[in-house]
Structure formats: C-alpha cells, structure tokens
Amino acid sequence: MATSDRSITRRGLIGGGSAATVGLLLEHPDVSQAAKRRRPRPPRRRQADVLVVGAGAAGMAAAHAVAKAGRSVIVIEARERVGGRVENHDLSGGEIVEVGGTFVGPTQDRMYALLREVGLGTWPTYDEGQTNLLLEGKTTRVSNTDQSTYVGALGLVGGLEVLNVFPQIDQMAREVPVGAPWTAGRAQEWDGKTVETFKNEHFQSAESRSLFDAFLRILHGAGPNEVSLLFLLSYVAAAGNETTPGTLNSLIGTTGGAQQDRIVGGSQRLFVEIARSLGSRNVVLSSPARRISQDGSHVTVTTDRASFVGKQVVVAVPPALCQRIEYEPLLPAVRDQLTQRFPMGSYAKVEVFYPQPFWRDEGLNGQVVGEGVIGCSWDSSPPDGRPGVMACFIGGDRHRAWNRQNLPTRRKLIVDELVRYFGPRAAKPIDYFEKRWTGAEMWSRGGPTGFAAPGVLTGFGEQLQTPFGRIKWASTESSDYWIGYMEGAVRAGQRAARQVLADL
Ligand SMILES: Cc1cc2nc3c(=O)[nH]c(=O)nc-3n(C[C@H](O)[C@H](O)[C@H](O)COP(=O)(O)OP(=O)(O)OC[C@H]3O[C@@H](n4cnc5c(N)ncnc54)[C@H](O)[C@@H]3O)c2cc1C
C-alpha cells in the first residue's frame, strides 16, 4: 500500500493532539491567518462518491475497498483519531500496548490479508506454561494443551461437564446459519432463553458454572443472564470462515484461537496506515455525524462544521451509536427498534506493568480465568519482554461494581487480585493504565461488542445488514463471520463497500 501522504501526522491519527485542533487542521489543511480573519464562514460543503461514517476497522476497510475500486471517498470520524475500539497506547521507549482490540488468530483471513497488504507482520502471543483459575474461592492451574487438567482443577463433575458441554455448544452452533442466525431451525427456541438458563440446565457443578460465567463476561462484556442463547450460538458459529466451522475454543483459545497473534507496531497501526493511504483531506477527524439525510439522488452527512454530499454512505458505527444520529427520512421502524435493543457490553481493559514478565520464570503463561474482578488476562508484554505487561479484562457485572470505585480503589482491586494469582512479585507494579470503554468513551459506549438479549435476533436481527436506501450499515456487529472482532468489522466494511459500489 502507498504510504506517501505524509501530511497526516502519526500523532494526529493515533490520538493525543487537541481534538478540535487536529480536526480543524485535517478539515482545513490550508488554514491561514487571512482565512481566520474572514470568519464566520458558511459551513463547508464537500462531495465524494461515497461517504463513510466512522473510522474504526469497519469504516477503514470500507473506505479502503471503495478507494481501490477507483471511487472517491471521505471518512467522517467523531474522535480525534482513527481506530475506534482499537487504540495503541505509547510506552516510553517507543514500545506500545493496545488498550482495545489486539489479537488476531486462525480463520481471521481478511485481517491477515490487510496486514500483508500494508506490510505489517504478526508475532505469537506468549503462551507457554500454565493458566491460573480462580473458581469458588480456590485458585488452581490448568494446561492450555491438556484439557484433562480441567478435571483436576474443577473436580470430576465440573471437569467432565466442561469437557462435554463445550463440544455440545459447538454442535448446536453448527445448526445456526452464519450471517442469518434468525433462520436457524431452532431459532425461536434458542432466542427464547438466556445463556443463564442453558447454563443451569447443563452445568451442575459450581466450578463449571463459575468458569462459564467468567468466559461469558469477557466474550460479550455481559453475564449469561443478559445474553440470548441464540446470540451466543451465532457468535460461536461465526468464529470460523467459509471452510472451518467456528467453535467455542476458537473464541477463547490462545494458540489456535482468536488470541493467537499480535500485530507488529500494535493493532491500531493497520488503520492508521489505511487512513494515510486515503490522504489527509479524505479522513475528517473530530467531526461527529449529527444528521444523515437522503433523497432520490444524494445523501448528505452533516457535522457541526461541515456537510458532505455523496451518492452512497456506509455507516460504520455500532447500532448503539447509530441510535444517536438523526435520519431524514426516519429509519424504518424495525431498524430504529434494533438500535434501541443492541447494547454495548460493560467493559474495561487494564494494563499492569512490571520490570519484566516474572510469571514466565514460574512456568506461568500470564493467563487467568476467574470469578473475581479480572475475568481473563493475557501476557501483553512487547516482543522483548521489557516491560512485563499484564493485560486484564473486566466485564459484565464485575465491571459495573469495579467501575463505581475511585481510581486508587480500582487499582488496588486489580493489583490485589494479581497477587492472589501470581504471588508477592505482583504487588509492586511500575505502572498502571486503565481504559474504561464503558462510561468513559462516548463514541464507543462499551465493548468489546454489542450483544443481543432474547427476542432481539429473531425479531430485529435481519436489520443489522439491511440497507436503507443510500445507507449501508457496517460495524462488526453486522458481520457474518467473527462478529465482535476486528475481523468481523473488516468483513462488514468490505461487504458494505460491495453494496455501495453496486449501487453507484
Ligand atoms: C478492550 C477490548 C478488547 C478487544 N480485543 C479484541 C481482540 O483482541 N481482537 C479482536 O479482533 N477484537 C477485539 N475487540 C473488538 C474489536 O476492537 C472490535 O470488534 C472492532 O474494533 C470494532 O470495529 P468497528 O469498526 O466495527 O467499530 P468501532 O471500532 O466502534 O468504530 C466505530 C467508529 O465510529 C465512530 N463514531 C461513532 N459515532 C459516530 C458518529 N456519529 N459520527 C462519526 N463517527 C462516529 C467511533 O468513534 C469509532 O471510531 C476488543 C474490543 C475491546 C473494547
């Protein structure tokens, strides 16, 4: 990919500049003293074949595909940076850690293809040694490569339940058509119950229930009592590609699963490079789309400072954010209702820094799964292991309780729990960084994904992808494969690009 347009500064695209300043500079690259004296000016009006609202993974993938097809495109982004739920955080010394979407894994083909196109490599997530569990007040250890260790860790009943019910979930997921779960033969039955009901029917042991809860909190940022069974099954079905069916293990696994690889330079870099290739004038930052109006010939996106006119628009924001845009004419009732029923998960990612990843010396891979505040963690250290970085994920009800505390208490809760898992060396981190996607990020409202309660997919699900005139919907929530992941976002963006190109 061409990366010749150096007028987009790396700092501007990644973030960190003043929102207003960076946005204005990008929108008006030739601002001069003379121009300033002429204020106030009428709102700017710009045109392109295709407009894209949202510069997350879906929006950038859509814009990239439209530009490659030789059509003009303008991306309109609310934040002062690109990437959306994907963001790099700079460490001193040039290293970065990711505070949002990070990992890629097998069958996430579109992500690997884009990475190759842009010239970015991947490297394996650290995955040597044992995983810590905290279930029913007890810490135990299991091996990621030997499932029978779950019998020792969870007890005979709990261990066997995990070994039997997880594959049963995979089997049920195979009955769910990817991209159209509402058409499954048992869609009404499965969308009529929560994952909690399924859990209580299939797991008898307190330990296996607790393990299942922990996975669910991290998968969706929601507890099993909040999520439809059909939604979970569709998520599992989607965790594959056209030749490899999805499984629960591909969602939760490290080597061989969705957490297998990390992206050199950090995941946000992919979308920064795509933005750079589009050119600075064509990625308008700090400009929330307030209104989208369409008529027989055009669509207009209005921001606070400008209006943009196109023949087609890709709205690449999750349903919960689509809800905050005004539409003229009004959205079809069922689409409007969908946006009221697809909440974002309750979610935070906390990075705790140590001089080195000391857990590796003790035969531990840095991964935990547990019933405490931290639902899951991964060793997120840079390739050279300096510093040691523990990435902790907090979801669902655990997030809501933790998020109510002040910063010192939140930090103490996390560090105390790491001590419980990793011993006294975890007590003295050299740094701590938290990203609260729910409550502190108005352009995400949560993470890692939007999810559906019972009745939503069967009642409203087909609206996830159904275009409304000149508006085509993207965002990972509207994908076929890998819903909720960067891969899903890229697939959704590329599908929306095909839809707009067909209608130009
Ligand atoms: C903590 C965390 C960890 C994760 N880990 C992983 C992982 O390891 N691997 C993985 O594959 N996925 C992971 N995910 C999920 C992944 O990040 C998302 O699925 C993906 O990035 C979603 O991309 P998107 O483009 O669909 O949506 P978004 O990233 O939400 O992009 C939407 C964009 O639209 C903008 N926007 C919103 N409203 C407006 C408006 N009115 N006008 C203009 N712009 C607007 C937003 O600012 C945003 O930039 C994680 C997510 C989180 C939060």
From TrEMBL:
Keywords: Oxidoreductase. Its EC number is 1.4.3.4. It comes from Patulibacter medicamentivorans. Coiled coil: none annotated. Residues 58-501 form the Amine oxidase domain. The keyword Oxidoreductase applies. Belongs to the flavin monoamine oxidase family. It comes from the Bacteria. SUPFAM superfamilies: FAD-linked reductases, C-terminal domain, FAD/NAD(P)-binding domain. Pfam families: Amino_oxidase. One of its GO terms (molecular function) is monoamine oxidase activity. This is Amine oxidase [flavin-containing] A.
